[in-house]
Amino acid sequence: MVITPDTQTALDILRVWPEDFKWYLIPIFALVIYVYFSEIEKGNWNRVFAGLAFWGMDWLNEIANALILVFTQESALWTCGGETGFLIFVGLNIEISLMFAMAGVAFVKVLPEDRNLKFFGLIPNRWGLAIGNAIFCVFVELILNYAGGLLWHYPFWNNPLLGFQYILSWIPIVIFGYLHFMIVCFWVHDMKSQKNQIIAVSVIYTIAISAVILFGIVLKLPYF
């Protein structure tokens, strides 16, 4: 296998701090702090833990995406294109990461208080919103792909925006790109025990941090 040109471009700036520091990162980071502190001020710890769970799930996704590049020696499922303030993994830049840090908090704000409420009397609201939000996120990702921000190499993950015949290629992006984020985020949000929320979030981040240490520091895998 040969590394794709898009992947090589990403690898050239992987975890290399650019000389032209991007000042816009500071207000975005401040916005993340504001979002979480606003929920803490109101005592909405369920939203705080849900947001952290959502962000942690993205880290697990990006680690898995980086491993795909390691083992294929060709391309990850998705690769970041365009300029960035800092590229963390080939498919994750600092701007995307800060966005995901806030996204989970936003998504749980629209959850009905009644967990048993069904949309149209048929669809459980948690599942309906999880699927709907995942499809919305994929639509945004399609626009980013069209604009060259997110790059896809493999045929089963490529160009679903072109027409109805590509609708099946939405399925893996919806499921493996976002749906499990939503499910875990809502699950943590709805936990009745704050202790269980802390345990769930801790497990997610323990796995993510352990994976980074194992694959990146101990094994020193290439491209990771």
Largest sheet: 2 strands, antiparallel
Instruction: Kindly name the structural category.
Output: mainly alpha
Q: How much helix, percentage-wise, in residues?
A: 55-70%
Q: Numbering strands along the chain, what is their spatial order in the largest sheet?
A: 1-6
| Global morphology | globular
Report the total helices: 7
Return the string of H and E elements.
HHHEEEHEEHEHH
Radius of gyration, Cα only, in angstroms? 18 Å
Average pLDDT, rounded to a whole number, is 93
Explain what the structure shows.
The chain has 224 residues and is mainly α. It has one domain. It is built from seven helices and six strands. The strands form three sheets. The chain has a two-stranded antiparallel sheet. The chain has a two-stranded antiparallel ribbon with strand order 2-3. A two-stranded antiparallel sheet has the order 4-5. It is globular, with a radius of gyration of 18 Å.
Relevant terms:
two-stranded antiparallel sheet; 7% strand; mainly alpha
List the helices and strands and how they pair.
Layout: H1 5-12, H2 25-41, H3 45-72, E1 78-80, E2 87-89, E3 92-93, H4 94-108, E4 118-119, E5 123-124, H5 125-146, E6 150-152, H6 170-189, H7 194-218
Antiparallel strand pairs: 1-6, 2-3, 4-5
Brief characterization of the structure:
By secondary structure, the protein is mainly alpha-helical. It has helices spanning 5-12, 25-41, 45-72, 94-108, 125-146, 170-189, 194-218; strands at 78-80, 87-89, 92-93, 118-119, 123-124, 150-152.
